[in-house]
Amino acid sequence: MSETPVYKRILLKLSGEALMGDRGYGIDPVIITRIAQEINHVHSLGVEVAVVVGAGNIFRGLAASADGMDRASADYMGMLATVLNAIALQDALEHLEAFTRVMSAIEMHEVAEPFIRRRAIRHLEKGRIVIFAAGTGNPFFTTDSAAALRALEIKADAILKATKVEGIYTADPTKDKTATMFESLTYLEVIQRDLRVMDTSAISLCREQGLPIHVFNLNTPGNIARVVCGERVGTVVRPDTRAESTVLSGA
Question: Nearest CA to 215 among 189, 230, 236, 199?
Fold first, then answer.
């Protein structure tokens, strides 16, 4: 694998589920340590790294809302859960002697800095890994939307969306064995096909600014570095410059 990055600054979107491994809840120390090692390796290549982490391993606001809880209250609880994950990831990174900052959209000065765009950019320029917590700070927005928003605010070169499958498929590959993986897609195709890799608001934000989205399997060791160094891994969502998507035959 080439160790020459094609991106100078990235935003990595981690789901909360990625942190719990095979557990049904919470954080798996082995998994979070491996993720931290991969992030630290990419950072050692000279790439400026920001991270947005979800909270599905602790609390899902949308699920709680479906069970009768007020949606805004449920979403705020989900935002607070992302702070727990952000602090856990920070701890894992600092055990590797990486310099980090957690920046929260909800002020909690004892554990995180408030999110200030220029300060976040300055941290990245100084070689710190920045972890964005508490989503956008507003209910009714997912952490996918937060990832797109923060990536644009810090002028990231790409979003890396880490998942549990190899990329974006024509159907759910865990349920449909005939599902085929796309090598590339346009933003419009993702929306029109209702592929749900990220919510529509996030895809639309990236489309407006031409920000590429790489979707790949986090469970394959080294994939973060492979994407950053330009290898064909997973699926890339690019500007609407092509008439058709590309499908990997036999994927």
Answer: 236
Task: Scan for tokens 């996918």, then name that residue.
Answer: 144
CATH number at residue 182: 3.40.1160.10
Can you tell me the mean pLDDT for 25-52? 97
**Whole-number Å distance between alpha carbons of 168 and 78:** 26
| DSSP one-letter code for 226 | H
More confident residue, 157 or 176: 157
Domain count, the chain: 1
pLDDT, average across residues 74-96: 96
Q: At 227, which amino acid appears?
A: V
End-to-end C-alpha distance for the chain, whole angstroms? 21
Residue type, 242: R
Q: What is the pTM (predicted TM-score) of this model?
A: 0.91
Q: Give me the domain span that covers residue 68.
A: 9-247
* R_g of the chain computed on alpha carbons: 17
